[in-house]
Every structure is written in structure tokens, then in C-alpha cells.
Design the sequence.
């Protein structure tokens, strides 16, 4: 497969040497810029990322002579690896609880975290790169990010506000800002605020988000975001709405409702299984 074939193929169907293709392009400064951008994007996929690719992305991101867009793409490519690495990381032991679950080593994980922080605080780094750095860094939360998100949201700069609201999905303590952002007239910020409300399970967002989910007049991207969010806010009330929407004549809406239901049902089934086990242990009376 060539690069375009890989871009159009689901990652789970990539050949075993896909990562080598990405690695070669990331290291080749004479390669077509568009190819290097695609390589940076695909290299971050969980099925591909490893220490070698991560260090190639680190080299691109840390090199001020590399194109701004490529550096930004390299930064955001760390997101998936940071997410799972943070989940498995034991701070006191400086190691992973289950190394086989993480596609990069502990040393690489710590190196990425340190580089992201270092570059973010350097205001000489281009705005787009710093935004993407923050958007990636929050997948592995650290204290410095709280102040970064607050400053971005308060900046009055539309792009930084968009980044801040996105970051609020992964950072605690921004309930008021998320509820405020739900009232924006900016379509992209509105979508991010809805998704953040769902992730943070903000009950105060229910009237706004559930209305968006049910209203056929809601712009589709925003409605799909709302459909995905309501289950996290009020699962019991959301279930009825989602079952109804799963029969929608609009395939995108029906698919979004089915996906949201699938995210909720496993937990319910687990609870039922636990109840069954309790009944077996305690008897019928």
C-alpha cells in the first residue's frame, strides 16, 4: 500500500510495515509536505504509534525550522498514546501498571509530557502549535494545564477559547465555564461545549443539551454531539430519547443514537449481572 491507500484504509487493516512508511516520511525533509502531514496524522493512530514513531514526532515538533502545520499535526498525534499511557501510569513507581496495554515506553511517555509543557510555555512557538500542544497534553492531565486552560478561555481570542473548551473535556473544575460556553453563537465552540458537558456529566446542562438532541432543526453536527452527550448527563432520561432517535429516518442520527446506547448498555448489563449474583448469594427472601 502507498500512503493514500493507507489513509483510505481502516487502521486495523494496515499492513505490518505501515509504521515504517510513516517513519520514513517523517524523517525525510525532502518528501512532499502533504505526504509528511498525512504521515504525522496516521502515525498517531493507536495501531501504529510506538517509540520509534513517537521520537520521530518529537523531533518534528521540537524543530522550529519544520513547517508550522506539520509541527501542529505532530503534537496532536500524541493524543491516543498519552491517553492510555496516563491511565496505566503509576506516578509513585514511575512505571505502567500494565506495560502491554501501552504502545510506548515509560521513558518516551515522560519525554513527551516534558516536551509539551516546555514548548507550551514558550510564547515564541507559533499559536497553532501551542494550541495543538494543549489539546494533546490534556489527555494526560497535569497541574500546569489548569492555568493554561483558564488563560486560554479568558483570552478573548476565539481560537484559544475553542481550544480551552475542548480541553475542558479532560480537565476537572470548569463546570461554570462549560455551562457558559453552551450559550455561545460560535458553532464549533458550541459543539465542544456540548461534548464537554457530556464528559463532565453536568446536570445543569441537561435542559440545553437534551433540547438540542431532540430538535430536528438542530444543525446536524451539533445534534450528533448532543446525542452523544445526553447519556453522560442523565442516563435514565436519555435512554428513552435515544431509543426514539435510533428509529430516525436520518441514518446519521439513528447511528449516533445507537452508538450512544451502546456506550450505556454495557454498564447496565454489568449491574444486572451483579444483581443476579447478589440474588444467588442471598436467596430470594
Sequence:
Amino acid at each position: 500500500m502507498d500512503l493514500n491507500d493507507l489513509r483510505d484504509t481502516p487502521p486495523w487493516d494496515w499492513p505490518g510495515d505501515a509504521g515504517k512508511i510513516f517513519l520514513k516520511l517523517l524523517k525525510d525533509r525532502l518528501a512532499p509536505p502533504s505526504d509528511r502531514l498525512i504521515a504525522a496524522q496516521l502515525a498517531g493512530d493507536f495501531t501504529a504509534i510506538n517509540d520509534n514513531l513517537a521520537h520521530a514526532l518529537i523531533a518534528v515538533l521540537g524543530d522550529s525550522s519544520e513547517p508550522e502545520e506539520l509541527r501542529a499535526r505532530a503534537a496532536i498525534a500524541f493524543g491516543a498514546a498519552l491517553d492510555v499511557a496516563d491511565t496505566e501510569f503509576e506516578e509513585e513507581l514511575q512505571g505502567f501498571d500494565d506495560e502491554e496495554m501501552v504502545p510506548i515506553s515509560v521513558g518516551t511517555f515522560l519525554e513527551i509530557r516534558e516536551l509539551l509543557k516546555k514548548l507550551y510555555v514558550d510564547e515564541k512557538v507559533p499559536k497553532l502549535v501551542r494550541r495543538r500542544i494543549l489539546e494533546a497534553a490534556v489527555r494526560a492531565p497535569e497541574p500546569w494545564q489548569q492555568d493554561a486552560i483558564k488563560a486560554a478561555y479568558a483570552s478573548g481570542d476565539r481560537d484559544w477559547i475553542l481550544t480551552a473548551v475542548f480541553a475542558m473535556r479532560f480537565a476537572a473544575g470548569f463546570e461554570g465555564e462549560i455551562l457558559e460556553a453552551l450559550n455561545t453563537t460560535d458553532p464549533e465552540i458550541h459543539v465542544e461545549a456540548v461534548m464537554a458537558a457530556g464528559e463532565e456529566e453536568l446536570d445543569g446542562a441537561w435542559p440545553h443539551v437534551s433540547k438540542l438532541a431532540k430538535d430536528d432543526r438542530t444543525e446536524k453536527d451539533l445534534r450528533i454531539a448532543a446525542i452523544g452527550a445526553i447519556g453522560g448527563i442523565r442516563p435514565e432520561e436519555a435512554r428513552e430519547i435515544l431509543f426514539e432517535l435510533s428509529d430516525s429516518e436520518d441514518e446519521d442520527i439513528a447511528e449516533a443514537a445507537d452508538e450512544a446506547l451502546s456506550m450505556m448498555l454495557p454498564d447496565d448489563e454489568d449491574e444486572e449481572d451483579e444483581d443476579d449474583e447478589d440474588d444467588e448469594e442471598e436467596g430470594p427472601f
Remarks:
- The chain has two domains: 1-142, 156-285.
- The chain has 16 helices and two strands.
- Confidence is low (pLDDT under 50) at residues 267-285.
